[in-house]
Specification:
Elements lengths: L4 E6 L9 H9 L2 E8 L16 H20 L5 E4 L2 H11 L4 E5 L4 H16 L4 E4 L21 H11 L48 H14 L6 H4 L13 H5 L5 H15 L3 H23 L20 H9 L6 H13 L4 H14 L4 H11 L5 H12 L13 H8 L4 H6 L19 H6 L16 H4 L5
Parallel strand pairs: 1-2, 1-4, 2-3, 4-5
Helix pairs in contact: 3-4, 9-10, 10-15, 12-13, 14-15
Amino acid sequence: MSEKTILVWFRNDLRIHDNEILVEAIRKADKVLPVFCFDPFYFRTTQYGTLKTGNFRAKFLIESVQNLRDTLRGLGGELIVRMGDPVQIIPQLAEQYQVAEVYHHREVAFEETNISSKVEAVLWKIKLNLKHFIGHTFYHKEDLPFPIKDIPDVFTVFRKKVERDSDIRPCFETPTAITVPSIADAGEMPTIAQLGLTEPVDDSRAVMQFTGGETEALQRMNHYFWGSDKLKAYKLTRNGLLGADYSSKFSPWLSVGCLSTRQVYWEVKRYEQERGANDSTYWLIFELLWRDYFRFMFKKYGNQFFKAGGFKGEAPEVSANQDELFEKWKNGQTGMPFIDANMRELNATGFMSNRGRQNVASFLVRDLKVNWTRGAAYFEEKLLDYSPASNWGNWAYVAGVGNDPRENRHFNIIKQATEYDPKGEYVKTWLPELKDIPAKLVQTPFALSINELNMYHVQLGVNYPGFIAETTEKILPVKV
């Protein structure tokens, strides 16, 4: 009787813990063939003129795939790495290694599902099955108290019903050994340059230095929960702007699946048993539930989340000179310090706080009146932790064309800046040209007189941008 080989196609599930496709392949096959493809589709220029993957995330991805390979090798296995289109590579490897079946995790955004469909069609022609698994969410789709088409469009309704009527499944066991076929050419890891990008430069002001891979992900979770014991204060600190531990910082690892959301959930439950439950332990789960929600909503509405009108069908008003305004926004040159600081942090590190993201998105859409999809596409390029559902779902939410019951959500940027950066430490970290302005004035340099600006060594339009005129009337009267 011939041996059975199953090909495991890794995508955004770069781990061995809580990984059903790996566990099932090891259980059902004599040999397992793990494969990862660096697909050129994800390293092209989009219709917005942005890259689908910027250099920070590309570096993180390379590190994550290398770590997965190292881990599999430690179990007696291997990871085949290829650069190219999986529509060609997966069937070719399947034939070469006489594979009986191909396993992968189902995605929800239309570009990712389209790639799966193309691979499935080619495999079908050679009489092979592409088996789909669900492994990116807390709640399994089959355990929801409603079909996908009936998922509530308001998060609170969804949350209350799943918390009451659904359970989160236990994690899959972590494999301790893996048997692979004899592999002649496992392939080389690509360099950043081979992906068409430049090596990113580390910035000492970054909240932390993120390194890709499951090993780092589990170490970070252990540090945040157990080593630093910061989980107990998460709800109080989560709106921070500086430093590594004001929030979990799990998102980059979650985005490529180096960390399982379900693993995080059960670790929180263990923490609650050993150190006590409180608002903070619940709130971390609450925030991660949004990830589930957006993935399910993408399943419900498909590519409507990528359109300016979202699934509500009516796009926000846009200004005539949005090209110019967008350039100033993305380069941190708006003259609004809180916005500029956040955008400069993003550009320099690939990361931005949740509080920052909400403010810069609101400012772009509501104050500058730029098409929100341009901002979402820019985040897609720059963010270390980009994932389609969370990114586009959140942008649609802020733009008022997605899952928000309130119309015209509009952040008062100065109020937000003075509340979350009261001493101006964050702004001065990323805008050192404003370092001499007192904390109570640093968020509004455009409101200072020429004499005051001279006293603080600031020249608007010279060493710091003047404020974007279109929004001056609306924002300047706000009392700070």
